[in-house]
Amino acid sequence: MNTDNRYSRFALVGEMMQTPNILRNFELKNCEKAIDAIKQKGKLFLTGEGSSRIFPAKNAMYCARRAGINLNLATEGGMQACCYDLSDFVVFGTSNSGQTKEVIRLFERLNNVNHKNLFALTANKNTKLESLAKQTFILSCGKEQAVAATKSVAEQTLFYQSLLSAIAGKSLAKKLPQLADAFGATLTMPIDEKITNAIASAGTIYFAGKNDGVAEELTLKASEILRNKSDYLEGTYAVHGVEEAMNKDDVVILIDPFKSELEKIKQTLVDGVGLKVFAVSDEQTIFPTIIVPDIGELDNYIYLAAGWNILVETGINLSIDIDKPLRARKVGNEYLDG
Question: Spelled out in words, what is the top-level CATH class assigned to the domain 5-174?
């Protein structure tokens, strides 16, 4: 991906290109009430729908557990969360529009039982969700024009990860310049045409990786941007039976794969099914590999950037309008008064 006219005419690319500076300039502000509540309760529930939950919430949980942060962390979509007893949890609801029906229904239900610790994260002011929350944090990234959310996803994720770092008495601020530089470099690195050609002609695009939100979020983005069938294979699920339904024209993209399982994946999927496997990793693998910078605890953002780059290059290859899917909407399930 680069800035010539083949790319820059798309709002999606412009919003992706804005992301490095959004990350560079991010500041966690006015979060004392939320931090105090989370410390007091020791339980945090993160909800939202689609891109507003997948990477932000799951990255937060993954990073907190790796860091040994002593919190009870959970996530679920708004409708299923309505089935849970969340009385002891601090609840964060994320919705760019502030009008996502499932999140609003959950917050209405919790307000009806006098829940005291409801917080919201949105990109718009004076929304229905804001009226239901104790405190609402507004993203700095601004409104997105493309249907597929990008810069907002990265900022939501950094908000949650920074919030958890603050709870642990730490700060990510000094690491943000390195993150921004690496993110920008990864967005604009060349992608081998053999990889994008294979993805462009794939029957199904599978993303395989840890349950940290990255591969799952890219699965959604593949559907929205490329209009192709896509699926997420968590952990080592790719070698536990799904191969029975795979075809030779399918493609598997491994995101930060477990090194010890690469040979088994080759035996099962390449030798067994005959499909193509590619990897995104900080080092060369036995598969064609897109190598990205290693920046430690913020690596997941870099893997996300690599995935965006792959999808845009493939979309350009397919000559489709990557800003405007045929059926997907900017607000998937919008709350309407009345």
Answer: alpha beta
